Amino acid sequence: MRIFESLSFKNLVRRPGRTAAQVVLAVFLSFCVFGGTLVIQSLQAGLSSLEQRLGADIMVVPGQAASQSDLENIVLQGNTGYFYMDQGIVEKIKAREGVERVSTQLFLASASAGCCSVSVQIIGFDPETDFTVMPWIKKSYGKELKDMDIVVGNDLNAFVGDTLTFYGRECHVAAKLERTGTSLDTAVYTNMSTIKHLIEGSLEKKLNDFTDLDVDHVVSCVLVDVQDGYSVEEVAGDMNVHLRRVEAVQTKNMISGISQSLKGISDIAGILIGIIWILSLGIMIVAYLMIARERIKEFAVLRVMGASRRKLSFFVLTEGFMISFLGSVLGIALGFCVVFPFSNLIESELSLPFLIPGVSKILLLVVMAFVVSVLTGSLTSAIAARHISRLDTGTILREGNG
Q: Is 385 helix (H, G, I), strand (E, B) or coil?
């Protein structure tokens, strides 16, 4: 290619140390822009995924569970746990004004003892009334869940066709769900018949805290969808006033803390990216000007040999473009190598849902980071080129001869 035969390319190769230092600056800038933006968008995608998975406007749970934050620990933090209330509450909830539809769930935490293959949160749901789990499951499994069939979260080390044992009862993995970037990726889902069978197993082995439990007359959680035209806050308040020993929790309130944390992190990351860009721009300008001064005689000789000021400027701009192009590619590649393999660690350390965006959004980020980095490099080289174009060749050569 002509570009590799050009004087600009040969000069970069001839000075590897200087070239490497400039490339490192470009890599750092590109990595921060791409990696930082990717992390922010992954956190935002994770929060959006959590909102979709929760689905319901209101979750009604035993009053004790809500006061002890057990529900948030299970849903938001991925902790294992379970609690129960009388199933009769379902009809009372249906009778409240503003309720569109309801669906029940049963929770069970598997033990770490030999009776269970793995310690996980097990969530039983009613396929006939469910409006939160089934739409998600249908993306991976379009059939009806049979008794003793389970669907596992994406982060669990289990695959379709495997057999998992819970409290001595064997369950068959029918499907593996798409990743959501939330704590739900470590849970197990099944129908009501199966989870009641598993709860009975936990009672038989005396590994359930609720020793006098009647599995046919309890639920853990009632999911409520509010009718259009009604305020979720008012419907939840009405339930809390008229229904005893339960707590109606607005799902938006459950994730408000996550939203605030995410906003804080996004704001800080955005400010840091801006500061890094300004610092990188300043450092690169200083570096390019210092290099230009170092090469003053070289440019003067080229002018004597017939190179125009415009040609010299083009020469410097070409070098800057090559360096920023290479640095951008390497910085983006470094971003991929850091964010993708360590996404679970990032999620764990930040305690926030983390879901890497789809291919189209990633490609858009790549283009954005590349353009920003290349334009920054080109801008700094343009400033150096303008400085060079003002040099007086005769004066430089006379000073050198003197």
A: helix
**pLDDT tens across 178-215, in order?**
887 777 788 899 999 999 999 999 999 989 888 888 99
Helix (H) or strand (E) holding 175: strand 169-176
Q: Say which DSSP state 216 is in.
A: G
CA distance 257 to 259: 5
First to last CA, the chain: 41
Distance between CA 123 and CA 224 in Å, rounded? 17
Which of 88, 58, 92, 51 is CA-nearest to residue 223?
58
Cα angle: 188, vertex 356, 179; to 5 degrees: 15
Query: Coil, helix or strand for 81?
Result: coil
- What are 180's two structure tokens? 């959501």
Give CA 342 to chain center in angstroms: 11
Q: What is the pTM of this model?
A: 0.69
Q: Note the Cα 306 to chain centre separation in Å.
A: 56
β-strand pairing of 149-152 with 169-176: parallel
The answer to whether 58 and 238 are in contact (CB under 8 A) is: no
